[in-house]
Design brief:
The chain is α/β, with parallel strands linked by helices and about 700 residues long. The protein folds into three domains: about 240 residues, no CATH class; about 150 residues, Alpha-Beta Plaits (2-Layer Sandwich); about 250 residues, TIM Barrel (Alpha-Beta Barrel), CATH 3.20.20.450. It contains 24 helices and 21 strands. A hairpin with a 2-residue loop joins strand 8 and strand 9. Helix 2 packs across helix 4, helix 7 packs antiparallel against helix 22 and helix 10 packs antiparallel against helix 11. The protein is elongated, with a radius of gyration of 37 Å. The termini are far apart. The structure holds ligand C2E and calcium ion (CA) (2 copies). The site of ligand C2E has 24 residues, from strand 13, helix 14, helix 15 and strand 17.
Length: about 700
């Protein structure tokens, strides 16, 4: 038993408070490790380790001050400093051990053991620093007890802080839980100290010495400094946290606002103020979903103005535009509240009726439209007479998918035109050659897969600043004996409808990966390749396995493969998409959003997906220098992308002016005819060689 005259209760209290404050600060700082990356992470770790280490150290010496002794205690300077260093280093090790987001029990116990042993090491080194007349001996049972208390309580504190988390692993624990963790940690520190003191068997008689040593007074100053710096750290931490929270809130708010704006920009037709095709296709999808569930009929109407081109050419664009606006107004007046009308092309409009509209109801609506648009238009001085043709397709019966319903309404509209215009027609089977072509295409595509008559073309992606080719996008090409050249825009929908997209997609992926390796074998630099994905591939349960298999088979490092997918492909089944995308990212494959701006354009939603790039759709790039609306959309998109740290790729860059616009927005890469169209593999080789030979 140490011989002394008891403890000062105030100072004992202070030592506990000191340990609690230090623990709270340290755990708070270390808790930030998970939300940060890079250098900042080391800064948080260092801060946490310092607060913890210095706190334990300060607690020890306050505890020593609390002890009434006959004479002021003196401490060896070197050992004292060593004890501080040991305390900080073991704290750093312990915090580094438990900082992982997925903290295993083993790691946690190991971290707790290191922390607890660190506290003990500090304590017994601190005891060694005392300059006493006789060496200290320890009672074994109490010494062991002090170690056990330190380890158990430290593990408990770390568990409370890093594991006990009601909101899932990524969020931080709540403040009361954090405070509780700090208190438990303080129990580890002070409990260990006072049990350790009880274990020491020595008379507290300072040795006369001339060595450099601290007096109690010097210690008071040192401890006060440590306390002050820990308080300061805690304060800074709180300020920073608050600052971060407001910054995040502001970013979220501006993101929401910008998204809102973007949404109305991309779904509105500027000339007529009617919704555009995008809006209507979304609406069609929704109505179809509900009608399927509720077994309700509805219809799609295609409205085309008759001989509009003649009016436009003879009376001028200005009158033409006015006519379109007025026609749109009449159309909007003719439809009922539950119907949605949109302008889907120059002189084309589309209507999706409300659910519960039977064929008779749609025909009445079509008749009303034909009559209304058949009335003469008074445009300034001029009276202009036009008429319109309407095609109707009804659900159920005329199609089960948006694509079918739309093409059938279109076919019916053409039928109405062929019957002399100024009338409406309903779809009938056999009306369209569209369906026939589709069947023909399907048969030939099956053959093409077997005969290997598909091929890929590769379009370079270029760094906006350096002009260097940074990769290629693989695009499907098909030259069929009977059908001739068939574009992917025609192949992909048929392949998706028939499920052929799975073997086609696998063929594309394998061929693209093989090609990169083939180029590399010829001595060219490794070239990253991007492959387009359809929603059906993404939602196929064997998809990731197939990707792994092909990477293995072709020995292509995953980092050289990129998948391009559209937002709508992701949003078809967001939960599944998230799982699949995370697995792909884990493999090392890069991911980009294709045709951005044409879909939901909801970046706040996209934020939760592990995406590397955004590709701005070529329809916007086309208008950036001529259409203020396109320019506004591209600006908004790139601003948001920058704020989310996404790479931006502009598609369809055809002119220097467009490139300059993209460069100004700090876009990273571009693709387009300005550099090159998609080329067969051998031509791309020549293209790259010629480009390298070019002076910079
Ligand atoms: P995408 O992914 O947006 O591909 C870019 C399209 O824009 C390509 O048309 C390309 O030839 C064209 N393009 C490139 N630069 C320019 C330019 O400067 N101006 C203009 N006006 N157009 C440019 P492509 O090859 O006809 O492909 C059309 C779409 O078909 C692709 O659009 C993609 O969505 C789909 N697709 C192509 N290959 C595949 C494939 O293997 N799998 C899947 N699922 N979809 C594919
Ligand atoms: Ca693409
Ligand atoms: Ca695209």
């Amino acid at each position: 038993m140490v011989e002394h005259y008891g403890y000062d209760p105030w100072l004992v209290g202070l030592s506990f408070a000191m340990a609690s404050l230090a623990s709270l600060t340290a755990l708070n700082l270390a808790g930030r490790l998970r939300d940060t990356a890079g250098l900042a992470r080391y800064a948080w770790l260092a801060g946490g380790a310092f607060a913890m280490g210095a706190g334990i150290w300060a607690m020890h010496f306050i505890g020593m001050l609390a002890m009434h002794t006959a004479m002021p205690m003196r401490y060896d300077l070197t050992i004292t400093l060593w004890s501080l260093l040991a305390s900080i280093l073991t704290s750093a090790l312990a915090l580094a051990l438990v900082r992982k987001a997925q903290l295993s029990v083993v790691r946690l116990l190991f971290g707790g053991a290191v922390m607890g042993l660190g506290i003990c090491l500090m304590h017994y080194l601190g005891m060694q620093a005392m300059q006493l007349e006789q060496p200290i001996s320890y009672r074994m049972d109490l010494l062991l007890l002090s170690i056990v208390v330190a380890i158990v309580a430290a593990s408990g504190a770390l568990w409370l802080f890093f594991r006990l988390n009601p909101h899932g692993t990524n969020k931080r624990t709540t403040l009361p839980v954090r405070c509780l963790a700090a208190l438990v940690m303080a129990v580890a520190i002070t409990g260990m100290h006072y049990i350790g003191m009880a274990a020491a068997d020595v008379a507290m008689v300072p040795a006369p010495s001339s060595e450099p040593a601290f007096s109690s007074v010097a210690f008071s100053v040192a401890i006060a400094t440590v306390v002050a710096s820990i308080l300061l750290l805690a304060l800074l931490m709180a300020i920073y946290d608050g600052h971060l929270a407001t910054k995040n809130a502001l970013l979220a708010a501006s993101l929401k606002e910008a998204n809102h704006e973007l949404q109305s920009l991309v779904t509105l037709d500027v000339l007529t103020r009617l919704p555009n095709r995008l809006f209507l296709e979304q609406r069609l999808q929704e109505v179809l979903g509900r009608s399927e569930r509720n077994q309700q009929p509805f219809s799609v109407l295609f409205v085309n103005l008759d001989r509009f081109k003649t009016v436009n050419d003879s009376l001028g664009h200005h009158i033409g535009d006015t006519l379109i606006k007025r026609a749109a107004q009449r159309l909007a007046d003719a439809v009922r509240n539950q119907d949605a009308a949109a302008r889907v092309g120059g002189d084309e409009f589309m209507i999706v009726t409300g659910e519960g509209t039977c064929r008779r109801g749609s025909e009445t609506l079509a008749q009303r439209i034909v009559s209304s648009l058949g009335e003469p238009f008074q445009l300034g001085e001029q009276i202009v007479c036009i008429s319109c043709s309407v095609g109707i397709s009804c659900y159920p019966g005329h199609g089960d998918t948006p694509h079918e319903l739309m093409t059938h309404a279109d076919a019916a509209m053409h039928h109405a035109k062929s019957l002399g215009r100024n009338n409406y027609q309903c779809y009938e089977p056999g009306l369209s050659s569209v369906a026939e072509r589709r069947n023909h295409l399907e048969r030939r595509l099956r053959l093409a897969l077997v005969n290997d008559s598909l091929s890929l073309a590769y379009q370079p992606k270029v760094d906006v600043l350096s002009g260097e080719v940074t990769g290629v996008e693989a695009l499907l090409r098909w030259n069929d004996e009977e059908l001739g050249q068939v574009t992917p825009d025609e192949i992909i929908p048929v392949a998706e409808e028939t499920g052929l997209i799975l073997p086609v997609g696998e063929w594309v992926l394998r061929t693209a990966c093989q090609q990169v390796q083939r180029w590399h074998a010829k001595g060219m630099a490794m070239l990253p390749v991007a492959v387009n994905l359809s929603a059906i591939q993404l939602n196929n349960q064997h998809f990731v396995g197939m990707v792994e298999k092909i990477l293995l088979e072709t020995q292509l490092p995953a980092g050289y493969l990129e998948f391009e997918l559209t937002e709508s492909a992701i949003m078809q089944n967001p939960d599944n998409a998230l799982r699949i995308l995370l697995r792909l990212r884990k493999l090392g494959v890069m991911l980009s959003i294709d045709d951005f701006g044409t879909g939901y354009s909801n970046l706040s939603q996209l934020k939760r997906f592990p995406i590397n790039r955004l590709k701005i759709d070529r329809s916007f790039t086309a208008g950036v220098t001529s259409d203020p609306q396109d320019a506004a959309i591209v600006k908004a998109v790139s601003m948001l992308a920058h704020s989310l740290d996404l790479d931006i790729v502009a598609e369809g860059v055809e002119t220097d002016e467009q490139l300059a616009f993209i460069r100004e927005l700090k876009g990273h890469q571009y693709q387009g005819y300005l550099c090159s169209k998609a080329l067969p593999a051998t031509q791309l080789e020549r293209f790259l060689q010629a480009r390298v030979a070019l002076p910079a």
